[in-house]
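Service request form, structural biology core

Requester: graduate student, group of Dr. S.
Request type: structure prediction, single chain
Budget code: on file
Notes: please return the result as structure tokens.

Sequence provided:
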Amino acid sequence: MTPATSFEGKRVALFGLGGSGLATARALLAGGADVAAYDDNEKACERAQAAGLTITELKLADWSDFAALILSPGVPLTHPEPHWSVERARKAEIEIIGDIELFCRERAKLAPQASFVAITGTNGKSTTTALIAHLFRAFGRDVQLGGNIGTPILALEPPAPDRVHVIELSSFQIDLTPSLAPSVGVLLNLTPDHLDRHGTMADYAAIKQRCVTQADRAVVAIDDDYTRAIADRLRRAGKPLIRILTAHHELRDGIVVEGEQLIGRRRGQSIRIANLAGISSLRGRHNAQNAACAIAAIGELAHDRAHLQSALQTFPGLPHRMEEVGRRGRVLFINDSKATNADAAEKALSSFEPIYWIAGGKAKEGGIEPLRPLFPRIAGAYLIGAAANDFARTLEGSVAYDMCDTLDVAIDHAAHDAAESKAEEPVVLLSPACASYDQFTSFEKRGDRFRELARAYVKPRVSASGDAR
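Core staff response, request fulfilled:
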């Protein structure tokens, strides 16, 4: 745990008692604060009480007693409208911050030069964050991994000169972190997302930019217009910057992707940094971008090319992100349940062919129409969930589809058709381009179920005589 001492001897309001909220409450208490904790969800309050926290009905509290509101990132700060706790805090003229801000204040107090790598972007954050942590560990560093990727930041060990914090940040977390100034800030990409919480794409991009604006060193992938503009602003401001480019190769300084090779450029001169060929956990151009950003983030450690290459080859990848579940004969089963929008699904669809594609769920704005250029790679689509009818209308006349409704039916039909294919490596791919909430409580639960079902096909079937078939 990292005790949050910046409110020692003061009373603070804390709203939101999920995993990060509970960790934040404990850290504040350990740092000497008086915490008035609350959540609109009665069960969350009950769980917090069972964990030893005192619950305060904040709607009835005197907000002039509070020095700050510590807000869960899942609670609306501005859009579609501010949460009632935000309105109370603003009326009381107290600051509204989150757990990442508390960590930043502890770092400034305890070890301002401690390594703090912050990663954000619309897609690829978790893979890049995990890969950066993996690379640092491969070079023998003490690494604390957390933030939006899983472990709440204040549940990690405190900042220290010989310790590296590798932290994934969502736009919601950044919006609650006014003093964000990591030693390395990484910005991967920007496409429309969470606009219901940020209002406009311009506002969303401005919040994401804060991850790199005050960083000692910025790493920015410049494949899209938004990140390219941010990198240009950083360059004009004279900020230390490493640019990453995969779409084209007109870059004199930075890292470019050429096929499966990562090439460093300095003043127009080139040197091969790493080779991603054969690393299944880093398959696809999007993962080449992730890897290039991760290599840039670890700085001088990457100069040991042999050690770096070995570390890349041992990266296991993350569950539900183009995860290889296994093979049966020529058929490869891939769990990409984390692909909850078309932009994320595009990464997997670009990485395999022919594809027996399981798609559907609770659709996001735009559906799968943006994926039309990739339809020729799809041998068949197996549609599930609430989006099935809409997806079928988009696929009509371009891709053969099967209305399966549920995941178990979809994988059964897709596996059968893939096995009948004469292709060298047909792929049964779960990359839904949808949220999971119509049939599953999370994309993780959806991916777990796919893995469970797929492994029934991957395991060799045993005949009555005991022979594997």
